[in-house]
Amino acid sequence: MSEILCQWLNQEVKVSQTVSPKSFAKAFSNGYLIGEILHKFELQGDFSEFSESRVSNAKLNNFSRLEPTLHLLGVQFDQNVAHNIITEKPGAATKLLYQLYIVLQKKKKSGLTGVEIQSIQPPANIRQQSMKSEAFRDRLRNLIPRQTDFNLMRVTHRFQEKYKHMKEDLVHMHFEKLQKFQKLKEEQRSFNIEKQRLNRRRQNEIMAKIQAAIIQIPKPASNRTLRALEAQKMMKKKKEAEDVANEIKKFEALIKKDLQAKESASKTSADTAGQTTTDLLNTYSDDDYIKKIQKRLEEDAFAREQREKRRRRLLMDQLIAHEAQEEAYREEQLINRLMRQSQQERRIAVQLMHVRHEKEVLWQNRIFREKQYEERRLKDFQDALDREAALARQAKIDFEEQAIREREIHEQIAVERAQARYRKHYTICAVILDQILDLSTKVADYRMLTNNMIPYKLMHDWKELFFNGKPIYEQASIKHLPAKPSAEQLTELEKRDLLDNNDYEEYKNMIGEWALPEEMVDNIPPSNNNILGHVIHRLVEKSHPPQVKSTVPELPSFAIKGCLLGKTFSGKTMALKALQKDFPIQILSIDTLVQEAIKAFHDKEKISEALPTEKEAEEKTLPVLQEKSKETQDLQNVSSPYPVSEDALPEMEDKTILSTETNKTTKVEEVTSSDSFSELTVRARLGAKSEKLLKKGKSISDMLLVNILVNAINEIPVDQGWVLDGFPMTLNQAKLLEEALTGCSREVLELEEKKTQISTLAIDPTASKEVPSPPSALDFVMLLDISDNSSLDRMNDTMTEGFSSETSHGDIAQHVTSENQATDEEQNLRDQIQHRIIGFLDNWPLLEQWFTEPENILIKINAEIDKESLCHKVKEMFTTEITKKENKVKKKLEEKEAEKKEEVLLAEPPPPPPEPEKEKETPSKTPPAKGKPPSESLHGKQESLQEGKGKKGSPKGKSPGGKGSVKKSPADSTDVSPVPVVPPPPKPGSEEWVYVDEQIPEEIPSFLVPYWELIENSYINSIKTVLRHLREEQHSVISYLYEIRTNFQHFLRRPDHKQDFVSQWQADFNALPDDLWDDEETKSELHQRVNDLRDRLWDICDARKEEAEQERQDIINESWLQDSIVIKMNHFFSLMQAELNRFQDTKRLLQDYYRAMEGKIPIDDIKRFTRIPLVQLDNREILESQLRIPLISRISISPDSTMSKPKTKAILKGKIDYSLENVEANFEADEKLLLDTWQQASLAISHMVAAEIHQRLMEEEKENLPADTKEKSPQMGTNKKVKKEPPKKKKADKKAKGKSPPMAEVTPVTVTAEEIAQMEKRKELMLKIKEEHLAALQFEEIATQFRLELIKTKALAFLEDLVTKVVDVYKLLEKWLGERYLNEMASVEKLTEVARYHIETSKKIQNELYLSQEDFFINGDVKVFPDPPPPVRPPPVEKEENGTLTIEQLDSLRDQFLDIAPKGIIGHKAFTDILLDLVTLNLGTNNLPSSWMHLTQPELQELTSSLIVNSEFVDWRKFLLVISMPWIIPMEEELLETLQRFKAVDEEQLGTITFEQYMQAGLWFTRDEDTKIPENPLEPLPFNRQEHLIEFFFRLFADHEKDPPQLDYTQMLLYFACHPDAVEGVYRALSVAIGTHVFQPIKTPPVIVEKTSSLTDMSPVEEYPELEGNFVSEEGELREDGERKEENPENVNTEKISMERLLKVFQGGKEVQDPNRFASHLQIENAYSENFVKVFQDLGAKNLEPVEVAILLKHPFIEDLISNYSDYKIPDIKTILQRSEHVQGSDGERSPSRLIEEKK
């Protein structure tokens, strides 16, 4: 369907965007294309206001404008359809477009425009349509979320993913630690196992030696005696004898039984029969014969019995018939006797019989009529039943088809969902694979850059990027960002922030790269500053008070609350009904509650006066959520810098929706009577709202549903439990329900948690870390899990049950009405089932996460079982949940009781001490309390420094603290002496310490909280920036060092001109004349030239070495190392400055906070912040006016000063390289500068702390001027301390002193006792504030000093590592330089040796001498002068062997014969004369071999007679075929296979083939492939005779008169059918002619046997020894064929042969070439043809049609012809040749008498 629509849209409508089936849903998701289609059909007038954007506002605008047009056209369109199209649900857009396509086609046919269609509509419908469109717009606005919501959801999802990745990294690190520990354990275990194995091996060796020492005596074998053997033999013999006797007995018994059976069967027979049987038994003792006789006797006896039985049965039948006859006769006699009565009686009887007959007729008629009526009624009833059954069957078929369609739709939806999941997973996997590939290539790149030594930090950063799904390679540059950065630039910013955050976490937690070094491992890193954390927490609470309060009920209820969820038809309602029967619970179904609410509105349910308070409380539940939404919005406005969670967004939406709805309802209520509406109950009012929404066609909002549900829950008694049926269905409903039931939402709690976690640098441990989470609204959630197919099946089952129950209805009217209602419900159910299932599948994962995250209350039950077991399972789960709830409530009650008891025990006050003692204690405690804070704080600081660190820090930083503790010791001792038993007071910041929480002005938190945020942000940003620069510097260092190495390698490999000199020398050397090679003077001259060449090459090497050394020195003298060291030092100084700034800002914040608590005005600090100077680069000049940060020049040490230093650093190992001493000296200067800067920073911190302590003491002194003089002792101590401070501090103190007198002026006032007590309390409070302030400050000092020392240590290690790397590279360059020089010198030496060798051996150097840089070799691929040409191999020549004719001789003979007799037949005298001429006149022509030259005329005549055909002629082709031997004689199967191949090649079935086809098909033998190629190139290749023979056979048998020459392959194969046995040759020829194998008859005449024997005596095997195997196999085949013919006499030779083929076999179609012999041959030919005609006619073929071969072979003429026909016999030519050679060998010349003898 989608393809048809796409074709219509793209080709006919021609929309602006090309639509494809894959992008169909996406293209129509914003509604723009739908509007364009309607606009093109002149239906959408406001198309110009449509938007192509894909944001939610544009979609809302487009679909709102589309809705009236679509309704005007009659297309089904509502907010659900629009939502499905917008969310790109599969099939939604296609369905709408298909409806639109149908409507537009109809409109096109009718020709109406949009205005005309609208004018046809009545005005009432137009008004109603406008109202509907407004309602549609509202509903669509509710459904479509805002674009900001989408963006926020995306952001929160990304942050959640980041959090997951970080968590996985931590787990991975923990797992690696565990693996390392396991590995150590395994190594220890394997070591122990190896040790035990060695011990066991030693023990086994000792045991083996002991076993080897034991001598084992073999046990003697048991000897068998002769007696035992003899006894055994006797036993065997006895057993055999017993077996034979038993067999005889059995046989005799069998014979006796047979005799007894015979005697009993034939007792009546005579004695002679018995004698004959005994004679027969005696004669035939065979068991089979006896058994046959027994069977015959048994059959006779059985037949006799059967005959007897038949005879008896016949007699019985005759007897029964006779008795029946007798009975009939007696009855007849009785009737005659009765009939002899009077006439009157007979008449009466006749009348009676007649009346009876009439009555019987009437009765039969009545019965017949009733039967007809009954049949008619039954037939009508059966017809009605059949009609009902047919209708039911049709309805069932329709229902099943509908169910199948529903199932297919569901499967299609499931497949689409699965495909969507697959696409999602595929894209995820593709992205991951791309990232893996990027990581691998990045690692490979840096392996090359760092020489396989990738730093840990780089690998760690790449892993972080990989695990967080960020691209490893740079996507875009972020140096100059535009106002709107691209997506790639945003990705790069995210990558940078991720790496910055990781680096900052490592720096903050002192792990990874910032882990404590070895020298600082003993020091304990400073923990959290609890005092500062408390201060920050208090300030934040003052400025942002928490909004959420834990709502925990005082008395928990035992009532259970839960809900039952599941898909449609999962059995929820049925299970809850069963549950309600057994338990006192209330079942709440949202459908019934909505119906009840609407019914209450219709019934005008009003508030009863008896319960006004309850109703008011219920009314209050409605605006609660709106107020809370306002609170959450306020919270979000306040905490705007912090991210808002995505879960809070849907809530706000719903609340705004509800507020808009309430506004609309209020407008409607103004029209109606507001008083009557206010009197309705809450349920009725909610029902009114829901009914109004339903009437508009909108769905009831989640907020309204929750309000209805909460109202119903409030009406349930507190002690009674309740269970919700199928609610909540979405995550939003679950959130609203929990918020309505518990009074708080999780989003607000998360905001509170984020507020508490604002401070990152200081944490308050005493503050409540977590807001107590409220109890869950539900105690349990049960899910009845069921598959989609089961849900559909259950729907179908219920509908079929309803259908079957409907058919049983009796009343027709009720049946019709119920049927209509049921069909409507079924149709609704069918329409909704798919949407319900999809909606559940979409919403359930979110609901599952909601119900399992804080507390797992979800219970899953498999509902694919029968009803009873499901109900039983649900009951079991419900009872367990009830017991859980009871146990939980009891536990809470017990905890509350225990808490109350503790409170009662703590509330009992201790006995009060007497008043006079109190008054005595107060003056004694006040003086030490004043003097304690500085002494205790300094003393605590000193202890922490000594115990925690284990070694002293900077002495200047500790000097004031040390002095203060020493000076306060006498005061401490005086204080402690009167109270020896009192425990030591708690230290500030400890768990026992009670913090001072006095009132502070409201302005202070509003100022200090942003100030603290500014401190944190500046500190974190500066740290991140510095760490980022350090990270980037590491990349630049690696790339720079790699570039140095590669550039120097390229410089070393630069081209030289040594090869030119070598080539010139080699050319001169080879150009020397040949006669001067052995001259001694020439050799000495050549040696001198070699020496000159060597010296020149050495000079080139020395010059190149000097250039390389100068290049290396230039690299060392570059200022890159110095500049990079300066930059890195400045980075570390920036870290120190950040720590110093944080300390100064924290000091000022604490000062302002505690002064505000004391009620003093904050001091305006005039002093500037301390700045750490940065190192100035040597090559940059900066104006003083531009300097914001102080700069110092870097001390660069000259080489002269370094020469005087005797000590060398550990960086330069091995030999001292004076070129690197300058680097070493500069590094020592940088190290000293770093240490001085660190010492300066730590001294500044110590001075700041001392100044703060001094200022506190001065203020205390000023405040206590009217007090006793005893209190001045601590101030004097501090004044002494201050004298040792720098002059700047003194000036500041003087200023403070100058200001102090006016502050210290006090007017004399009379003071009461209460005022004195208040003043004492005030003093104690001030002392406590002072003590807490100084303790926080000193803790900050310790932490900052520790951080500075860590930065100093890391900076030194970093610089040392950098210098070490650079020095290693410089040394590597020197190593490469030396190796290169040595290799070049060695290659020159090798060249010299080769040259001297060739001079001494007087040889030219043919191959090129190659000398390039450090490589020397003789290039075998390049020759200076060419090689001499190789010799040409002569062509192959055939040699004469054993009198065999060569191919050339055979071709010459063929040409001669072809000229004389082209058809192949020649007279025997002419043939003999030709041969005689060739033998006698062969004077140098070489036409025949040498063995043929000794043949005489009689021998030639004998040879001719063996070849004669029909006693007159010779076939010269057969002669050439015979003399061309040896070749492989084919078997019959090979001939037939060759024939089939020829026929396959002959596609036109002409019977002839060309030379190409002949070579393609091939013969039964191929060319000889075992020929060996001779190694000598002058020796010719061996002659391949078989290959040339194949070509010769074509030339021999082909017809050369045609162009191209044609070969009759059947005629050729008939020649090859010849055989040493003439009869066998004829049968082979018949087989070739027919094309299948012809079997010989069984009986062969003895003449042929004699011939074959004579042929075997002639032994052709001896003639051709190389064909021995073929003949033997042929004879074996003959024997096998003979056996086969005996075995298979039938169904052979069934093929038919024609007259033409028969004449072809028996030379019937040849023409005679000799004119003198023409008549005689013609007679012979006519005789053959006439005989064959007679034979065919004798065999029944009158029209000479083909005859079966088997029949033909049986004819006597054919048998005689086959036995006497000799044309298919191979003649014996070799014997003649051998005989002539033998005679010629005995005497060279023959006498005439010898010739005569040979003739005889």
Question: What features would you describe in this structure?
Answer:
This protein is mainly alpha-helical and 1800 residues long. Helix content is 68%, strand content 4%. The chain is built from 57 helices and 17 strands. A five-stranded parallel β-sheet has the order 2-3-1-4-5, with helices on both faces. Strands 10-12-11 form a three-stranded antiparallel β-sheet. Helix 13 packs antiparallel against helix 26 (788-807), helix 31 runs antiparallel to helix 34 and helix 34 (1120-1158) packs parallel to helix 36. It is extended, with a radius of gyration of 63 Å. The C terminus is likely disordered.
Descriptive terms for the model:
1800 residues; mainly alpha; five-stranded parallel β-sheet; extended
Task: Give the fraction of residues assigned to helices.
Answer: 55-70%
- The structure class reads mainly alpha
Task: Work out the radius of gyration.
Answer: 63 Å
N/C terminus separation? 107 Å
Count of helix runs: 57
Cross-sheet strand order for the largest sheet: 2-3-1-4-5
What profile does the largest beta sheet have?
5 strands, parallel
Report the count of strand segments. Answer: 17
Overall pLDDT metric: 75
User: Given the C-alpha coordinates, what overall shape results?
Assistant: extended
Low-pLDDT stretches are 609-673, 806-813, 908-982, 1179-1188, 1196-1216, 1267-1309, 1644-1689, 1708-1726, 1786-1800
Kindly estimate the percentage of residues that lie in beta strands according to DSSP: under 5%
